[in-house]
Design a protein that fits this description.
Elements: E1 3-8, E2 20-21, E3 31-34, E4 47-49, E5 54-56, E6 90-101, E7 105-117, E8 127-137, E9 146-150, E10 153-157, E11 167-175, E12 191-192, E13 212-213, E14 222-225, E15 245-248, E16 252-257, E17 264-273, E18 276-284, E19 291-295, E20 298-302, E21 304-305, E22 310-318, E23 326-330, E24 337-341, E25 344-345, E26 347-355, E27 360-367, E28 376-378, E29 382-383, E30 388-391, E31 400-405, E32 410-414, E33 416-418, E34 434-437, E35 441-445, E36 455-462, E37 475-479, E38 485-495, E39 498-509, E40 522-524, E41 529-531, E42 542-549, E43 564-566, E44 573-582, E45 585-595, E46 600-608, E47 613-620, E48 628-632, E49 641-646, E50 652-658, E51 669-674, E52 679-684
Length: 688
């Protein structure tokens, strides 16, 4: 069983499908704060953990303590900027550990707080950060259960596959909202044990395997427990030695202690009256920083700070013109960190109300600029006149109101709803019209009705009279009379929201010829749902389907007019027989279902040695979603899996993966199979 999990912008804690986390962090031991964004590369300058330890991106291209390989940084001697000169991935912390498993296999653990780009290549605006836990284990016993203990918890894998990467688990939590990474299981930061043994300014040296510390559980190890995970005599066997447990305390660890505080602007708003004005500036950084606010024509003003890293300054504006722009400068940093920000007015919404009785929306707001009052606009509702706006005939109140100023300020306030509560209306649904045979038991169903329903009532309005059973319930039944004709019925539902009526017609057929119609032959995609259709049959009161040939499938609803099944994932022809019965006796018909042959092509295939990256692209005749390709490293489909990719709606697919540990084997080929039955063997992969 492969285990791959990624969350973008979604925080997930506790139980994880495919890798059960048995313990979450003790209270207060996660990462706790994300720093300001660096103006040069767009990533947070630092992350801080609950122990007060801060890490910055290790971006010294020629420093071996940062772990870059040749080619990772386009120009290692130039300043790092986005998009011009930056690696595709960088780390605030990267810890990895490796052990040998049985039969010459390998187990790897990766723990990281990573900076990357959503689409892969370096691109401005694509920055994201995430905490990663990755566990890969070769040659576990198929079907067995294994526990993996590591510094950030315990993962349990059940019913695992054998072979290379029989356990393959990745959990990424984070997004372009850099605060999401705080909710990952990575944290607090790990350091060499003891921390004083690490190179100055760093958590460790990634080139030297070393014992570490920092686990909130005290499990500063990489340990795997499960049947025959180790070979007899392996140096990784636990103590006392047994092949069902391997462990190592050595990690490759990279991380740099934060040296920059940076400065993150939170708000810069001005207020002014005829007698003068002031500019209020709010920011955040590390504690004990020297931060200034500067603007041409105004005095440089220091920001006062608090122990939690909050900063504030008020700049007197006098009665002169407004500043056209300001800069915040952290002069503690070397070099100075400089961030520009445009001051805006402060918008206050004093009223946002909706009256249910009059269906009237009332909005009132004001700006802090009383000298040149700006235009205030309620988003989606219009311009405020004299600071107010009233809209009538509003059927549904908005949950929030946002007012924007022509000076740049804005405010959002929840709408206060006034008036009595409203009842949910009821809607009657008597179901579709029907055609039945005389003597047949007929069911009228109001199950499709909606709302807060407290009562059902069925009555016949036209046609030969029948006896209704269950007329006061959602489902009524009767026996169709022996004469042809239309029967009309009416359903009334009631509730606190009032009443609702719907009608249905039942056409009685007497003496209609009995004809079985199993529907037209079908051609479908492997693995997709298939519905057989006998609704074109006539004179039938009962239906029965059975499979005559082909790979056996399970029919759901075999005694209904429209049964279903899932087409097997193999090339086959399925033949089904329909038997219908009614007053005229019985009749049969057959229908054949075959699968579409998926044809695969490869338009590009290469492995970049410099980037250690696979790039394979092509097409499939069965378009997605739902068609998944699996790529095997070698000339046959029995070779190890390289990865998988989904075909898009145009029938196009693209597989791109950076993996230093997986290079083309001696055949320099890959083989591809699709979930829709396509195969392509021995595709050459040039090394570039």
């Amino acid at each position: 069983m492969k285990h791959i999990q990624r969350w973008v912008g979604v925080v997930v804690l506790g139980v994880l499908v495919g890798g059960l986390v048995l313990a979450d962090h003790p209270g207060g031991s996660h990462l706790v704060q994300v720093g300001p964004v660096h103006p040069a590369h767009g990533f947070p300058i630092w992350y801080k953990d609950a122990n007060g330890l801060s890490a910055e991106l290790c971006l010294e291209a020629r420093n071996p303590l940062c772990g870059f390989l040749p080619g990772d940084v386009p120009n290692p001697d130039a300043p790092l900027t986005v998009p011009g000169n930056f690696p595709e991935e960088a780390f605030w912390m990267l810890a990895s550990s490796t052990m040998n498993t049985r039969g010459g296999g390998r187990a790897t653990l990766t723990l990281a707080l990573e900076a990357a780009f959503a689409s892969g290549p370096v691109a401005a605006g694509d920055q994201l950060s995430f905490g990663r836990i990755r566990i890969r284990v070769d040659n576990p016993r198929p079907g067995a259960t294994y526990r993996v203990i590591h510094p950030y918890g315990v993962n349990v894998f059940t019913d695992v596959e054998g072979g290379e990467r029989g356990i393959d688990f990745t959990q990424d939590i984070g997004s372009g909202n850099f605060a999401d990474a705080l909710e990952s299981h990575v944290g607090p930061f790990l350091t060499w044990s003891p921390p004083s043994s690490a190179p100055a300014g760093f958590f460790g040296d990634p080139n030297v395997p070393h014992a570490i510390t920092g686990s909130p559980f005290g499990t500063n190890v990489f340990r795997i427990e499960g049947p025959d995970i180790g070979d007899p005599g392996s140096p990784f066997l636990c103590s006392p030695p047994a092949t069902d447990c391997i462990q190592t305390e050595l990690f490759s660890l990279m991380g740099k202690r934060a040296t920059l505080g940076g400065v993150g602007p939170l708000r810069a708003t001005y207020s002014r009256t005829a007698s003068g004005g002031a500019l209020d500036v709010f920011a955040f950084s590390q504690p004990a920083q020297s931060i200034q606010v500067r603007s041409p024509g105004f005095s440089t003003t220091p920001l006062g700070g608090s122990p939690d890293g909050s900063y504030f300054a008020r700049v007197s504006l006098g009665s002169g013109p407004l500043p056209t722009g300001i800069t915040l400068v952290n002069i503690t940093d070397e070099p100075d960190t400089v961030v520009s920000i445009q001051p805006v007015d402060l918008v206050s919404i004093t009223r946002a109300e909706y009256d249910l009785a009059t269906r009237e929306l009332r909005i009132a707001a004001r700006s802090s600029d009383e000298v040149e009052p700006p235009v205030l606009t309620a988003e989606g509702w219009g311009v405020l006149t004299g600071g107010t706006l009233v809209r009538t005939g509003v059927s549904v109140p908005p949950p929030f109101i946002t007012v924007r100023s022509s000076r740049g300020g804005s405010a959002t306030l929840p709408v206060l709803v006034l008036g009595p509560g409203t009842a949910v209306p009821v809607v009657a649904n008597a179901g579709p019209d029907q055609s039945v045979q005389s003597g047949q038991s007929v069911t009228l169903s109001g199950a499709g009705s909606s709302g807060n329903i407290t009562g059902f009532s069925w009555r016949q309005t036209a046609g030969t009279p029948v006896v209704l059973t269950g007329a006061a319930t959602s489902t009524a039944t009767f026996i169709a009379p022996g004469t042809s004709g239309a029967l009309a019925f009416e359903l009334t539902v009631s509730g606190p929201g009032g009443t609702s009526v719907d009608a249905v017609t039942v056409q009685v057929l007497a003496g209609s010829p009995l004809v079985a119609n199993a529907g037209p032959d079908q051609t479908v995609v492997q693995g997709r749902a298939v519905t057989l259709d006998a609704t074109a049959s006539t004179g039938a009161t009962r239906f029965q389907w059975r499979q005559l040939s082909g790979v056996p499938v399970t029919l759901t609803g075999a005694d209904t007019a429209r049964p279903g099944f899932t087409f097997p994932r193999q090339n086959t022809v399925l033949l089904f027989e329909l038997t219908v019965s009614g007053p005229g006796g019985t009749a049969t018909d057959t229908v054949q279902v075959t699968n579409i042959q998926d044809t695969l092509t490869v338009t590009r295939a290469e492995f970049s040695l410099a980037r250690r990256e696979w790039l394979i692209e092509g097409t499939a005749t069965v378009a997605g979603p739902g068609n998944t390709l699996t790529l095997h490293l070698g000339p046959t489909l029995a070779d190890p899996v390289l990865g998988s990719v989904t075909v898009d709606a145009r029938g196009v697919w693209s597989f791109r993966q950076r993996d230093p540990s997986r290079r083309p084997n001696a055949t320099q080929t890959v083989s591809i199979e699709s979930s829709a039955g396509g195969q392509l063997l021995r595709v050459p992969v040039p090394i570039r």
